[in-house]
Write a structure and sequence with these properties.
- The structure is a single chain.
- With 167 residues, this protein is mainly alpha-helical.
- Helices cover 56% and strands 8% of the residues.
- The protein folds into two domains: 4-74, no CATH class; 88-166, no CATH class.
- It has helices at 9-18, 39-47, 57-66, 74-87, 97-106, 110-114, 120-129, 141-166; strands spanning 28-32, 35-38, 70-73.
- A three-stranded antiparallel beta sheet has the order 2-1-3.
- A hairpin with a 2-residue loop joins strand 1 and strand 2.
- The longest helix has 26 residues, at 141-166.
- The chain is elongated, with a radius of gyration of 23 Å.
């Protein structure tokens, strides 16, 4: 048994040529000679280690990428590409995360920014998820508008971060 981190490209290609996978395909995958295979099981097979080896999927992907293989995360690509096009096209056009953050923030109207409470960073859960404010009264329409704005802003920011992660 070898350490999976010591694998060579040839060992992975050889293991892939005889590798058969009949279970549900995991999210992390690798392309080897035009075949899409599960990343972690392939690395473990190539290294000759048992399935309970502590090498996790992210480590297996790092090993495969270091060896020059193309890796894919199936769920992320399927969900983000369709929603990115629909909700926020052109996310990749920004040079830095700061520029992208500023562009998203610029889409929020000034009246909505004015409704941001001064204690937001300390009480964000209370403002977003609870029905009552600190005074014990029902959440007002202004807090509802604020919560909706923050949720929309957060969704756009998560799309942006996913795009930066892929690039």
């Amino acid at each position: 048994m070898r350490n999976p981190k010591e694998l060579t490209r040839d060992e992975v290609i050889h293991a892939a040529s005889r590798f058969r996978w009949t279970r549900k395909m995991p999210k992390w995958r690798v392309l080897v000679q035009s075949r899409e295979l599960p990343a972690r099981p392939l690395v473990l097979e190539a290294a000759g280690v048992p399935p309970n080896d502590p090498t996790n999927s992210h480590q297996a992907v790092a090993i495969l990428e270091r060896l020059g293989f193309e890796t894919r995360y199936a769920a992320e690509r399927h969900q983000t590409q369709s929603s990115q096009t629909a909700e926020y096209p052109g996310v990749a056009r920004f040079d830095s995360i700061v520029d992208a953050f500023a562009a998203i923030a610029a889409e929020v109207p000034d009246k909505d920014w004015a409704s941001v409470p001064a204690d937001l960073s300390k009480n964000v859960d209370r403002y977003l998820y609870r029905n009552k404010s600190a005074s014990g009264t029902k959440r007002g329409s202004m807090e509802k508008v604020f919560a909706d704005t923050v949720i929309t802003f957060t969704k756009k920011l998560s799309l942006l971060l996913a795009d930066f992660h892929r690039s």
